[in-house]
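Notebook entry, cofactor series.
This is the third protein in the set we're modelling with a bound small molecule. For this one the ligand is zinc ion. I'm keeping the input format identical across the series so the outputs can be compared line by line later. Sequence and SMILES below, as received.
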Amino acid sequence: MQTTQCPICSSDIIIEEEAAEKDLVSCLNCGAELEIITLHPLLLEPLQDSTEEDK
Ligand SMILES: [Zn+2]
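Returned structure with ligand:
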């Protein structure tokens, strides 16, 4: 398990051990959906083109 910072709100995000590239994680603080671009180094990118559908 490792942690990184949310690119939007800079709060800590926990990345599970089994996370893979292109997995999606959610920021618990701001709710942003983030895609794991690479694991080494750990790089997250916010999903920009979100269709505004209700969940
Ligand atoms: Zn955030």
